[in-house]
Amino acid sequence: MPTPLIRAATALICLAAVTLAQGVQVYHFDGPRRASNIVLFGADTAAGVTVVHGQPDWKPEYEGMLGALKGKKLRLGKDLWTTFMTSAPVELGGVEVAPGCYCVGMLCDKDGRFSLALMDATATMKQGLMPFGPQTWKPGYLVPLTLTKDGLTDPASKMVIQLLADAEDKMRGTFAIHWGPHALTAPMKIHVARRK
């Protein structure tokens, strides 16, 4: 028969487990994810690049918040991480990104310049880093983006991230983020290795 001390210790362990479980919040959602893809395929060529993200709504009150973003790490998109995956080296904004899968955030420096922040997806997930809450991640690649304010004739009510292929040079294009009346862009070049 358990002693009173053992019964008390067991009760404390059970109470601690219940308290820990009560402190966890669970969010279940089947939110839509948007994808933009470029696939290059030929007799001696095969490559694919994709970006997948949730789409936050633009709100008019965001208009005056650009200045408050200076010096901050930011989430990009909605819900879980925006992801970028490539089977070939891709040059984004002059930065060569190795083939792989990346979690994507954004950085705004103290002068208000934006950069795409790419982090190795496996390492990021193993560390338990999330796009919401404290932004303690460290980017593996920082890709400079060009901000166009109020330059969209058709403002994006939901965030849209696209890989736009050049009509004349299939290995070139643009990485583009449109949200509200603003756009962030970087030139893109895909370095496809010829298959043997």
Summarize the structure.
By secondary structure, this protein is mainly beta.
Topology:
Layout lengths: L3 H19 L11 E9 L2 E9 L18 E4 L6 E5 L3 E3 L2 E3 L2 E9 L5 E7 H6 L14 E4 L1 E3 L7 E10 L6 E9 L1 E9 L6
Explained architecture:
About 5% of the residues have low confidence. The termini are far apart. Strands 1, 2, 3, 4, 7, 8 and 9 form a seven-stranded antiparallel β-sheet that branches. With 196 residues, this protein is mostly beta strands. 13% of the residues lie in helices and 43% in strands.
Spans of at least 5 consecutive residues with low confidence: 12-20
Q: What structural class should be given to the helix and strand makeup?
A: mainly beta
* Sheet with the most strands, sense and barrel status: 7 strands, antiparallel
Please report the distance between the alpha carbons of the first and last residues.
74 Å
Molecular shape: globular
- The average pLDDT is 86
Radius of gyration: 22 Å
Quaternary form: single chain
**N-to-C SSE series?**
HEEEEEEEEHEEEEE
What level of helicity do the residues show?
10-25%
Query: Helix count?
Result: 2
Strand content: 35-45%
The total beta strand count reads 13
Comma- or semicolon-separated keywords:
mainly beta; six-stranded antiparallel β-sheet; seven-stranded antiparallel β-sheet; 196 residues; 43% strand
